[in-house]
Amino acid sequence: MTIALAHRPALASDPALRPVISFHGVGKTYASGTVALRDIDLAIYQRDFVFLVGASGAGKSTLVRLLIRDEMASSGRIFVDGQEVTRMPRRRLPKLRRKFGIVFQDYKLLPTMTVGQNVAFALQVTRPGQRHLRQKVEETLWIVGLEDKIDKFPDELSGGEQQRVAIARALVARPRIFLADEPTGNLDPDTSWGIVQLLLQINHRGTTVLMATHNREVVDLVRRRVIAIDGGRVIRDEQEGQYLREGEATI
Amino acid sequence: MRRFFSAFWFAIRSSLQNFRRNLGVSLAGVCTMGLILVLIGALALGTHLLTNVLKDQESRASKLKIYIQDGVSLADIVNFQHRLQVDTRVLDVSFENKDQAFQEAASKGTDIATAVTALGSNPLPASLNVDVKQLRYLVLLDAVARSDPIVDTTQPTDYNPDVTPKIQAAINIIEAVVGFVSLMLLVVSLVIIMNTIRTAVYARRTEIEIMKLVGATDWFVRWPFLLEGILGGVLGAILAGLVVLGIYRLVVSLTAGALFSIPFDGLFTLVVVAGLFAGGAIIGAIGSYLGVRRFLAA
Description:
The structure holds 2 protein chains of 2 kinds.
Chain A: E1 21-29, E2 35-44, E3 49-53, H1 60-67, E4 75-80, E5 83-84, H2 93-97, E6 100-104, H3 115-124, H4 133-143, H5 159-171, E7 177-181, H6 189-204, E8 208-213, H7 216-222, E9 225-230, E10 233-238
Parallel strand pairs in A: 3-8, 3-9, 6-7, 7-8
Antiparallel strand pairs in A: 1-2, 1-4, 4-5, 9-10
Helix pairs in contact in A: 3-4, 3-5, 4-5, 5-6
Chain B: H1 2-21, H2 23-61, E1 63-67, H3 74-85, E2 90-96, H4 98-107, H5 112-119, E3 127-132, H6 138-146, H7 163-202, H8 205-214, H9 218-255, H10 266-297
Antiparallel strand pairs in B: 1-3, 2-3
Helix pairs in contact in B: 1-2, 1-9, 2-7, 2-9, 2-10, 7-10, 9-10
């Protein structure tokens, strides 16, 4: 089988630069018959910062969910860190998911827990008995700029601050890959820009970042790799890309 | 080991926190569980009391009087009595001679003395009084008696073919009704409890989702919910145990000194209370397991 890599094909043979994420002919069709993704081939490397762009319903979120096996691919193969996700037994999924830090548009914070407890929760449920828990939580909150909010509850914070808490929770276990599914979808432009800067900072520390978004301003301002999806297909994969190709009115 | 104890401690702490944080839903679950367990406990109690009354009635009805012909030798009677005693369907056999039959008839107010005067002798026959283990054996032992030559041919036994099947039928119907009601109650209670727990679990689906996403194992997600289900079940059982015991003591005190008095059965009470605790814990755990499974599989 020929593996079609959409990015850095010349380096694919170098074991040190093997992709951390690769999709090979991946398709997803729901039980209702709706085709969400078809024949996706792509490769994402360590330290990449990738924008996954496309209109609502294009298949961005499905792609993210296939990566963490929250959904099962209907066809093709997906690899994360050299391990095949598509054939992974269910009992190994927790270990796979610990490679990822994930944030969503709706933050998914637990309202009955404080900021510190929300962040600590990710470590408590995956690494019970973790030493220096409080110290790790404080360090992570310092990275996202919320060290002074550790004892606040989510409803006492702004939308941007809540998303930072979600980022801290995703970051506290030091994941290899950071997935952000529309993280700025509910935020104003200034706050969105703050969140993206934070993700760039995380990427700068060596973490691969994949951000699904339809925030045109952010994508055009950052000028990083852009993978555009439309109708369930990858229609464009560019380094230092923009939200729209020149002359395009929409994706 | 440190990780195991930390995980266990986390599960206990988390279940207690969740119970407290969702106090309204938790208490609704405990009350539902308590009410169901009260019904189950009351049914167990009622069945126990009814069974005792039925057994008493059955033991009274499970008696057969085999009349012996006049003039039969004592050796033949003892021989027949022995054959009956070794029969596996028989509990006990006692001999009643003609004089004892006369005294018993007289004690029941029968004007037997007039008959003796008129006839010049005691007309009542001697008999072997047989206690059978079950009511349904009466007809079989009646047949055994009729085939024996020492038995009175005019009236071999006091077996009444009309009465015994009616008593047996009544017992069968009562047992069937109690069994059916118990089964229905159990099914209904399981459905109600599972739905209550599912509602509680549904309220925390975000928490389950986050645990899954950050890489918690299925059992790590499950344990706090299982412990919470067990806690709710045990609290419901305490509630139910108090109510059932209260009802039982009330029934015992109300029937004290009456014709059909019900004694306090300590061992049975212990069994019911232990059953309620075990039942509450098991139903709570099963309900939680099934409730969480749905969200883990999603």
